[in-house]
Specification:
2 helices, Jelly Rolls, 15 strands, about 200 residues, alpha+beta
């Protein structure tokens, strides 16, 4: 009986730790925002083609963007840098970036934040999900101004792992903005805890 009690206690502790871990992962009303800086954002390609702007984007705290009652200064990612990055579109791959979404084992909707400036190209994005599957899509950044934009489909995806964006839309000298991304867990197609509309 003593051993049975220890086993039950062990299971209870494991369950409690699991719940606490899940709560940490799903913090900020079940949104996980990845800012374009720090350890969750990696950019590649020649430094000469990257430009940094410190006063644009959702994670730039002083602007305090708000949407659906959620404000940028409430984000768990409140440490510098708050910058966005910019490169120019080209006709061959040169500069690109990856946002590490954290491999959270849940169904989530994806969003990208399009800042008010330095974002006028049609960006070729890719998300990876569910252990290695991928979905490719484009966002015409020129159509949005300080807005969270969803995927071109209303579909959610399981275990979104990474977001990729590259500078190869072949659109002359248009600017391609690299700003914040997020995944948002929802019970249905809309939620007060997630930004904007599922239809961009």
């Amino acid at each position: 009986m003593k051993n049975l009690g220890k086993i039950i206690l062990s299971f209870a502790l494991v369950a409690m730790i699991g719940l606490l871990g899940a709560k940490g992962v799903l913090a900020y009303n079940e949104r996980s925002i990845v800012c374009s800086g720090g350890g969750y954002f990696d950019k590649y390609g020649p430094d000469a083609y990257w430009s940094e702007f410190g006063n644009y984007g959702w994670c730039h705290n002083s602007n305090n963007w708000c949407e659906n009652g959620q404000c940028s200064n409430q984000s768990p990612y409140t440490t510098p840098p708050f910058s966005m990055w910019r490169t120019y579109s080209g006709c061959s791959l040169s500069n690109y970036a990856r946002w590490n979404m954290g491999n959270i084992a849940q169904w989530s909707y994806w969003y990208g934040f399009i800042p008010s400036n330095h974002a006028s190209a049609t960006g070729p994005y890719q998300i990876t999900y569910n252990g290695g599957s991928s979905y490719n899509f484009t966002i015409n950044q020129n159509n949005y101004y300080n807005r969270w934009v969803s995927l071109p489909t209303t579909q959610n995806y399981y275990q979104v792992m990474n977001t990729w964006l590259n500078d190869n839309p072949c659109q002359g000298t248009y600017e391609l903005g690299f700003d914040d991304t997020e995944i948002c867990h929802e019970a249905d197609g809309s939620s007060a805890y997630c930004p904007g509309s599922h239809n961009p």
